[in-house]
Structures are given as structure tokens and as C-alpha cells.
User: Fold this.
Amino acid sequence: MDKASIIKKTWDEFEALLTTHGYELVEVEYSVQHGRPVLCLYIDKADSPVGLDDCTAVSQLLSPLLDRDDFVPGDYVLEVSSPGMDRPLRKASDFERFAGEPVRLQAHSPVGGRKKFSGVLRGVRDGLIALECDGVVHEIRLENLKKANLNR
Assistant:
């Protein structure tokens, strides 16, 4: 299975399960480090910061399922982590939740002649992310989003 398939399958299989346990799946990364596959899941929760106990609980919840379904063939490393201060933003709900926060955003296609933005997130509406940079509000379509992170 290729990298994109593993990431997609992980999102499809575990996003809802983690939600039922009080966690949000923020990001999934798959890489090979020192010849060994590494599947990294970033989790968050609404009521308090993610701690070591949360990461351990999610790892223990998912490890048997990953092994049973052979998500990653052979030996692999599962890492579960907090998204950190520069938390990725992917979904419309992320842009609603973090309105008012400073963010960095990169678009696939230019918006107003540029692809990179840094400013204050003003929210999302009808699939348009509103981002204020230097007093000007730019609107970027969710489909045009390449990457977005909090910029704390």
C-alpha cells in the first residue's frame, strides 16, 4: 500500500472512532525513517491539553486495530502526539474554532497574486476562509488550501 493510501485509510477508519473517545484526529503522517515505517497521528481534545496519558490511551486503542488490519505491512512505529503550538488546520470546523488566532496559510493557486499568507484568522463561511493580513481580509477557498497552521 502506498503512502497516500495508508494516510487515507487511517483517516477513514479512525477519525470517527477517536471522536467517540473524546479525541479529534488532527493530522496523519506516514514516512520511512532509518528504513522503518512510521505512522504518526496528531490528536487534540476540546476540554484540556493533550498529555502523555492521552497519547498512550490512543496508542493502546489503535495498535491492535492497526495490527489486525495490517495497515502498515511488517514492523512499523506508531507515534501519537499532540499537534503542538503550530497546530495544523484542515477542516472548516478548525477555522471556526480558531477564529481570532494568528495563522500561516499557503494556497495551491494564487489569491490576489500570492500563495502565502500570515495574519489573523477571521473564520470560515460558505467554504471561504477569511484571513486578515495587514488590515486587508483575504478569502481563500477550502479547496485551494495547501497548508494552514496556527502561528502562536
